[in-house]
């Protein structure tokens, strides 16, 4: 039986594996889910062992453990290090899920569950493919190492130190990331660049406690007003970041990606319609993609302060805060970006307030793959065979922080070979993973390992 | 036994009554507390009956019931209608309470509980005083009517209609409000004017669902950014409201109150130190009081949108909202103020967003008492005797919406005779009521009824 036939024949069991895995609430950003982190890492370690991986272990990282396993076939063959993560985004707002986030449910040939698409489904694929090779051919066409972290959705705070600490263990010729996502459901794509990321929470405080807004209104400092003015100072009328020093080090966009953007013939109006917006703020598709792929951003992810219940409470809150993440392009340094924002906000803080900053992890730099890397061509050929169309080379707005970490620490290139699609709501309610992608992904990984070994 | 001696002798029982009353969670703004509303209105009706009130009933209002009772002594005596409310502010943030909000606790000669100061303690005083008159003298020196509403903290949405509906029942010569508050703990005061109030919640929506801020950042509309810019557009650099039409109808401040402000020798630096702010945004005490008492305000009471948990979630939220209340001065119409704000914000809404408004009740106009009203002089004399110092005439930033309603519907003047003090955290955690105020209040109400009847 061929590997691909074996995978077809065992698809139902594979789907059961994914359901069991996605049922575990392994949210890494919230300590309330520490149990789910433990269970998911254990589940994965056991599944690797059952698939035939050797030296399976949960690696100490200083934070949530990473899961590691390897199948070393022959020192003469190339060694591939597969990357993924077992942690997931928080599931809230819970009330918007049609079925509970941790009760995986099939609807319309899709599996709905938090983490199904990011990254539990895509990561399970190479595990199942390795098992299929062992069951059918008795060996793998490459040496395979698997490294699955548990803090990706928290900004991978211990990832680079973990790479350093286990550098010898992770030695390889190429990294293949099972995390990431195809750009569009209707067009195959290969991600060749991604923006970096850095996170910052800003809290503005006025009085030392909440005050009655009737008695104190007009005299006591209102931190919601101060925070709003600070937020409004961060972008210009064209939506671009106005922070001094924010753009330091940025380079002009890669002409090859600009060419790919032209080839994509992106329809801005359709994009806005898709996300439910009638009146397009950006009308030109090329400009829109440049903004999404190639320009840095400063986005507000959450804001809170004061009374949050129903109706009215006449209070001036003591403080208000906003969560910010920035997407970085080549040349921007995460720490320098944070510093620039902190300087900008501190300089504009009105009298009567204090300001505090909390940066969530070290952030990550932008990342780009060498366009002539042979593995990139191989991966593109396979996608072309299976999906009937040569993939577009795209940049992704979202970061996969590991991109730059592998090249910096291990000195090895990384390609992205994920079968998630970016419309699968993986950071929103009702995340799903297409079963068709699960099937195609297994075929594709089977071919990828074969050809990388050849 | 004199009435005052009787009240002294029964102080412990009075305190037990207050504890039992304040233990009932009668939050009117949140439907989750509907049981507490029911219990508190029932408790009050029973206590009135026990005190000797006649025709006690819970009046249908279209919302939470109002509680009514009367003691009609003699048609030749003046009739006093006492106003108060049995509903309380929401208790959150719960974690900031030293003892639970609905477990009344004595500390340092104060009773700590949500509602102890606003308005359960002050309202219980005239009930206890009426009972004391009946027990000692067998009759009251006036005809007394008591009207206690259950929606004051919700903006009294049905109050004016209730006044209209029961106009004959509420017929009186004078209204005395047991709600309101003394300005300072160290200086007796009489409130002769108060600002009005109006509430509005503003929600800005971008995409139809939450989006990944990595993928969509830079292209999708971010409602937190749009809302912040709208908020920042509502005030000028001096902190005053810039909305066109907001100030329509306002009159110059009453010179008598300006004179009282001068007499108060208000220390702005001490005020800011008190509320925990080192660097005073307004340095002149007179200007500060003018802002607090005599100018309209637009304050933000709560803001929310996007991810509210710990750590980071890379999301562009679908919507963000802010809760606004405005304090109004004489001449401003609540509906016109809301309309002006809605026009201002709608005109400034950027492309790609929609905006929705939700106004919480009809609001209330500002209110001022005739400075020559005899009852005002009587009340001032009594405070002077009991507190050793002639009271200041003050305006209050906070509204007591009933002020203007009584004069408009019943054509009768209202004075404020509350023994709450404005430092008693009545819209914040750890609300308390001074036992000394409870004692003094009973003496004062005993004298007030006697002299109004003379
Ligand atoms: Zn991921
Ligand atoms: Zn009150």
UniProtKB/TrEMBL annotation, chains A, B:
Superkingdom assignment: Bacteria
Keyword annotations from UniProtKB, A to Z: Hydrolase, Metal-binding, Protease
Residue intervals of the Peptidase M20 dimerisation domain: 193-350
NCBIfam families: PRK08201.1 (NF006053), PRK09104.1 (NF006579)
Record-given protein name: Acetylornithine deacetylase/succinyl-diaminopimelate desuccinylase-like protein
């Amino acid at each position: 039986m061929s590997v691909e036939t074996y995978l077809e024949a065992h698809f139902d069991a594979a789907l059961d594996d994914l359901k069991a895995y996605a049922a575990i609430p392994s949210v890494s950003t919230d300590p309330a889910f520490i149990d789910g982190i433990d269970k998911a890492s254990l589940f994965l370690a056991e599944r690797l062992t059952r698939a035939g991986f050797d030296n399976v272990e949960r690696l100490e990282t200083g934070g949530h453990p990473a899961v590691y396993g390897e199948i070393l076939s022959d020192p003469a063959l190339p060694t591939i290090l597969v990357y993924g993560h077992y942690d997931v985004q928080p599931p809230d707002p819970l009330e918007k899920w049609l079925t509970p986030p941790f009760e995986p449910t099939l609807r319309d040939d899709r599996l709905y569950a938090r983490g199904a698409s990011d990254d539990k489904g895509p990561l399970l694929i190479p595990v199942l493919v390795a098992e299929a090779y062992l069951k059918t051919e008795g060996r793998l066409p490459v040496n395979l190492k698997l490294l699955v972290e548990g803090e990706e959705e928290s900004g991978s705070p211990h990832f680079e130190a973990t790479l350093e600490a286990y550098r010898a263990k992770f030695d390889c010729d190429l990294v293949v990331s099972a995390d990431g996502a195809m750009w569009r459901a209707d067009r195959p794509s290969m991600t060749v660049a991604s923006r970096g990321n850095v996170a910052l929470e800003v809290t503005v405080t006025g009085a030392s406690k909440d005050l009655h807004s009737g008695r104190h209104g007009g005299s006591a400092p209102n931190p919601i007003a101060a925070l709003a003015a600070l937020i409004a100072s961060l972008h210009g009328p064209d939506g671009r970041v106005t922070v001094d020093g924010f753009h330091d080090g940025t380079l002009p966009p890669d002409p090859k990606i600009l060419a790919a953007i032209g080839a994509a013939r992106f329809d801005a109006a359709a994009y806005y319609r898709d996300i439910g917006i009638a009146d397009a703020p950006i009308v030109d598709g090329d400009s829109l993609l440049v903004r999404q792929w190639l320009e840095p951003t400063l986005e507000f992810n959450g804001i809170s302060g004061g009374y949050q219940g129903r109706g009215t409470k006449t209070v001036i809150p003591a403080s208000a805060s906003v969560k910010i993440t920035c997407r970085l392009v080549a040349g921007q340094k995460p720490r320098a970006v944070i510093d620039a924002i902190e300087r900008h906000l501190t300089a504009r803080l009105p009298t009567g307030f204090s300001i505090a900053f909390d940066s969530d992890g070290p952030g990550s730099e932008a990342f780009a793959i060498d366009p002539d890397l042979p593995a990139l061509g191989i991966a593109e050929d396979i996608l072309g065979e299976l999906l009937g169309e040569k993939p577009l080379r795209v940049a992704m707005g979202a970061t996969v922080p590991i991109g730059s970490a592998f090249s910096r620490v291990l000195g090895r290139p990384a390609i992205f070979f994920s079968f998630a699609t970016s419309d699968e709501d993986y950071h929103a309610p009702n995340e799903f993973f297409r079963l068709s992608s699960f099937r195609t992904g297994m075929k594709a990984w089977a071919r990828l390992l074969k050809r990388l070994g050849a």
